[in-house]
Write a structure and sequence with these properties.
The protein has about 350 residues and is an alpha+beta fold. It has nine helices and 20 strands. The strands form five sheets. A six-stranded mixed β-sheet has the order 6-7-8-3-9-10, sandwiched between helices. A five-stranded antiparallel β-sheet has the order 13-12-11-14-20. A hairpin with a 2-residue loop joins strand 4 (about 55-60) and strand 5. Helix 2 packs parallel to helix 4 (about 135-150) and helix 3 packs across helix 4. The radius of gyration is 24 Å and the shape is elongated.
């Protein structure tokens, strides 16, 4: 098992900074998720840990040993790729056995390890099949099995579920989480899917433009986002941001005003303009103490809930409402103002 540490790690491509001075510690046996939009640098971080990308500046440690100059095959890590990377001419058994053959293990050792991994991943009945005879989920399990047999210190996973359909992604999420609990190994998982991040990670590192914006548990990052980017990235639908003016310790939304409590007044002291953050599910709270009206532009039915699109102070917003909630052309929206968040209009940081 292993602790992974990145110290002041920077990656530059053609004079462009891709990863900017990242400090990150992944604890032994932890499941850490690197999440961010496409092109933010999360996969580059993973590839630098694996040794597949050179580091421009900084150091990477695995088990307190600097691995900057250690070949990928000697880092004792396993990498699970997005496209499975299976050998098409080999059977499932041969694909899983291949890394063990390269390490020159005995036939019995190879057979024992492959069959044990196959049992863990429910692949025993598929060992004689070729990859083309498997579904996407089965292929991904084979890729996981090939990693498991090596018994590595660290598992690295680069968007392993992105090629699967929605139902299969949900199933594989739980399978990978169970696998982590069973193996008790350090997992570093890359995804652009915020649902995967929130449901799978012990901690989440949210990345934007090569910079880690926030690290914390799913609960911490969701409920106390460091800035507007984090608040807007995590959550589906995303957090609403409403620009407002502060006057006489009150804020007005669509013509209706509410008074700030003492704690809120202290947070935004000295500011006349502010950005309010409201989660879509916070509208129509049972404990609401403020309401305003808005014209509904679009409504989407999701089965167990519905999403209403509207404007608040000319800002585009969404509300997640119960499926049986009757939505008229004019919608009255209720908020518990004690639960709203305040962001600096210029720096976008949470106040």
């Amino acid at each position: 098992m292993a602790r992974v540490e990145l110290k002041n790690v920077t990656k530059v491509y053609d004079k462009k900074v891709i990863i900017d001075n990242v400090d990150l510690t992944i604890n032994d046996k932890e499941f850490l998720v690197l999440v961010g939009s496409s092109g933010c640098g999360k996969s580059t971080i993973l590839r630098m840990i694996a040794g597949l990308e050179d580091i421009t500046k900084g150091e990477i440690f695995i088990d307190d040993k600097c691995v900057n100059n250690i070949h990928p095959k000697d880092r004792d890590i396993a990498f699970v790729f997005q496209n499975y990377a299976l050998y098409p001419h080999m059977s499932v058994y041969e694909n899983m056995a291949f890394p063990l053959k390269m390490r020159k293990l005995s036939k019995k050792e190879i057979d024992d390890k492959v069959k044990e991994a196959a049992e863990i991943l429910d692949l025993t009945e598929l060992l004689d099949r070729k990859p083309k005879q498997l579904s996407g989920g089965q292929r991904q399990r084979v890729a996981l099995g090939r990693a498991i047999v090596r018994n590595p210190k660290v598992f690295l996973m680069d968007e392993p579920l992105s090629n699967l359909d929605a139902k299969l992604r949900v199933q594989m999420r739980s399978e990978i989480k169970k696998l982590h609990q069973k193996l008790q190994t350090t997992f570093i998982y890359v995804t652009h899917d915020q649902t995967e991040a929130l449901t799978m990670g012990d901690r989440i590192a949210v990345i934007d433009k090569g910079v880690i914006q926030q690290i914390g548990t799913p609960y911490e990052v969701y409920n106390n986002p460091a800035n507007k980017f984090v608040g807007g990235f995590l959550g589906s639908p995303a957090m609403n941001f409403i620009d407002a003016t502060v006057k006489d310790n009150s804020i007005t939304i669509n013509g209706a005003s509410f008074n700030l409590n003492e704690e809120q007044q202290n947070k935004i002291k000295g500011r006349t303009k502010i950005t309010i953050g409201v989660r879509p599910e916070s509208f129509n709270s049972v404990q609401s103490n403020f309401e305003f009206t808005s014209k509904v532009e679009i409504c989407e039915m999701l089965g167990n809930s519905q999403i209403a699109y509207f404007k608040a102070n000319d800002c585009n917003c969404t509300a997640s409402l119960p499926a049986d909630f009757k939505i008229e052309k004019e919608l009255t929206l209720k908020i518990n103002t004690n639960n709203i968040m305040f962001f600096d209009s210029e720096t976008t940081s949470l106040l």
